[in-house]
Amino acid sequence: LTLADVDAVRLLLTGQSVIDWHRLSFADHAEVDRFLRLNELDPESDEEMGRLEDIRADAVDYLSRAFAMAIPDEVAADLPARDLFLVASSHGPHQKWACVVLKVMHIIQHINGRAGLLKMSVSDEIIFREIELKVMQVVEQLRAAGAPLTEWEWSRKPRDSQITKLLAKRSTLAANIYDKLRFRLIVPAPEDLVPMLATLTRQLIPFNYVVPGESLNQLVDLDEAIRKQITNPTVSQAIKIPSLNEFSGPEYRIVNFVADLPLRIERLLPKSDLPSDLTHVVFVLTEFQIADKETALRNESGASSHEAYKARQHERVRLRLFRDKDDPLPPD
Question: Per-residue pLDDT for 331 more than 70?
Answer without folding.
Answer: no
